Amino acid sequence: MAYRGVRLVVLLVIAGVLATFVVWRVVRKEPLSGGPAPSDPDAARVEQFRREGNLESLAGEADDPRPEVATRAVRAMGSLGQAAVPHLERRIADARPEVREAAVVAWGQAADDRRPEVVAAAARTDPSVVVRAAAVSVLGQVRAVNEMETLIAALDDPDRMVRVRASASIEHILGRRYEVFLDDPPGSERRRQAVEFVRQIWAQEGQGARDYYAAKKARGER
Quick one: how far is CA 209 from the chain centroid? Predict the structure, then answer.
């Protein structure tokens, strides 16, 4: 009986502590775990500009020194179509890799003219793996046939994620699968031969692919 009494006292003490904590959180107006997050005025402002199609204001938000605000604004511009492309291309040169990645992805969503030189440059030279990976994915997404050499070169990128995405983009454009030994060390002889084989395929089929995608574009298809 004494043991049960001690257990009851301990449980009552624990319950009292928990109740005090809950009351303290409510008084401070902090959400409990799993509850709704407080409103984010930055997110609300960016979303309002997006709904209004206010590119100039979004461009101002993209210059915010806080990367989370700038990234949100850049992503919002992606839904505003071709007019957003010049703004997005400027952000592909941003000093912050998360902003550059968001700009590359948003460019792929917004661009209609299919002049992907800025994205291709990011795929070739950006120091961030995530930016290069995003860039080669977008080049495949928009079927950038004039940047096939950029994609082929990315098959020998030092990072496997970039190599995998470049391979997927090439397959997407060519409509066929092939083996380029993505797990081999960059510069290996077997990879070199496989990459050269892809170049030969493109030399043979490239003009046909260009004509095919040009006809799709003329019909308004993506």
Answer: 26
Interatomic CA distance for residues 170 and 201, integer angstroms: 11
**Each residue of 22-37: pLDDT tens digit?**
333 333 333 333 333 4
- DSSP E strand boundaries for the chain: none
pTM comes to: 0.78
Burial zone of 210 (CB within 10 Å; 0-12 exposed, 13-18 middle, 19+ buried)? middle
15 pLDDT more than 50: no
Which pair of structure tokens corresponds to residue 174? 């060519």
Identify which of 68, 143, 78 has the alpha carbon closest to the alpha carbon of residue 107: 78
What stretches of 23-120 adopt beta strand conformation (E)? none
Rounded distance between C-alpha atoms, residue 12 and residue 20, angstroms: 12
Do the Cβ atoms of 168 and 137 come closer than 8 Å? yes
**What residues contact 87, with CB distance under 8 A and at least 6 apart?**
55, 58, 59, 62, 77
* CA distance from start to end of the chain: 78
